[in-house]
Amino acid sequence: MYFHYFKKSHLFISLFTLSLSSIASDFLIEDLNRDKSKQQTWVVLPYIFSSESMGLTVGAVGIFSGYIQPQMSIVATTFIGEELEIQHNDLREPENERTSGAMLAINNYRPDFSNRLFVSVIGAYGYYPNQRLYIDGGNDSIKNLENNNNNATTPLQTQGYNNWFNGNLRYILPWGESKNRILPKIQLQRGIAVNRDQFGGGRPFTTGQTILGSELFYSKWSAEKFIESPEINTNGLRLYLEHNNTDYPSNPSRGYTFSGKISADFGLGNSTQSWNALEVDYAHYIELDNFSWSRQNIFAFNLWSAYSPSWNNSKTMQDGGILEENQTPMWEGARLGGWNRLRAYDSNRFNDKAALYGAVEYRIIPRLNPMADLAWNPLPIDWFQLVLFIEAGRVAEKYDLGLLLSDMKYDAGFSIRALAAKVPVRFEMAFGEEGSAMWFMIQQPF
């Protein structure tokens, strides 16, 4: 999965995953606008942009749905930028280097020995000449892009690598909708579910779909100008439980979802240090009456919280160091900012021991779709969606609701989304107190 990120004249691009659970498809799709023997869809989207930090950069993303096995999807992207002059932290002469990266995700492969077990893998490589790292991203931290001090952490601007790999096992429990039929069959008419009138809502675990999952994760984030350590490494295990009680998980119009996760790095191998974290997530969807010009009209709500029991914010790993004892890496645990939560802020702009976040989106799909005629259209675009959203969140050094609900960070924005090859693609613009940001991403944020 990939994104473009613009911050005024600065652009920061990387490869990340929303989570394997968000790109997996635990259901079967039948497109009523296509012949039953031609249900596979694919799309390749090229992109090009220019920025002061990366220069001219080109790339492409490919999305393939229904190949090999009908529930599977494959996402791949690659990009490369022009050469830029890089000043290293040592006495070397400046060199010319370029941004480059690639990612491959294979989602929801079902092995022959189990009907209910699904396997997903995703891996990425990326080098960035001028990445922003918020190693100390407390709620009161002040962003200063003009600070050239290598000890600065709000943010530290440095060249480095961001490489990671995740392997995911998902087991669909024999409860609710998946008791007799493991993968629900969803029929789509121009991207809208038409056989799901009786689904969306109901009693938890009695209706809907419940999934028990485990994920092995590894990531290496190098930062040449970070004096305390040239890189931050983490590897470990994540366990989670998900319950989806919506009509169409890729683009819900009614119902709810919730999940709980526990993640742990045990300090093995090249891990920087051990840590653990807990997360809970709840989303609710309310379908409204349509206008004469709309096909779908929805209010979507999201509440998310995280806490790291291991994080000891009274001690540091090293005397005089910045990293605190058993803290989560800034891209794990209680973190806010980026393409999913507090979208007007840099990725992982805020990170601490605890976090609380909420969002409201108004989503509407107009009847008008200039690309609906598949006879001439080379891209399988089933609908466009217009979205308005507001968000609020805060991180803190302890889990205290009074503290977390005070002095929160806010932003608001709009989005244009499309269903391309049965995968939502979104372009978003968000505005907050530290400026504005644009994102190009796949999958709904919640």
Tell me what the structure shows:
It is a single chain. By secondary structure, the protein is mainly β. The chain has a single domain, classed as Porin. The protein has 2 helices and 28 strands. The strands form 5 sheets. The protein has a 19-stranded antiparallel beta sheet that branches. A hairpin with a 7-residue loop joins strand 10 and strand 11. The longest helix has 4 residues. It is globular. The N terminus is likely disordered.
How much β-strand is present in the residues? over 45%
Total separate domains = 1
Cα Rg: 22 Å
Query: What spatial form do the alpha-carbon principal axes imply?
Result: globular
Largest beta-sheet characterization: 19 strands, antiparallel
Which CATH-level-2 architecture? Beta Barrel
In short:
Residues 1-24 have low confidence and may be disordered. The protein has helices at residues 20-23, 401-404, and strands spanning 2-7, 10-11, 14-15, 28-31, 41-51, 55-65, 73-81, 84-86, 95-97, 100-109, 117-133, 156-172, 185-189, 192-193, 209-222, 231-246, 255-265, 275-287, 294-307, 312-316, 324-325, 334-336, 350-352, 354-366, 381-396, 409-420, 423-432, 435-442.
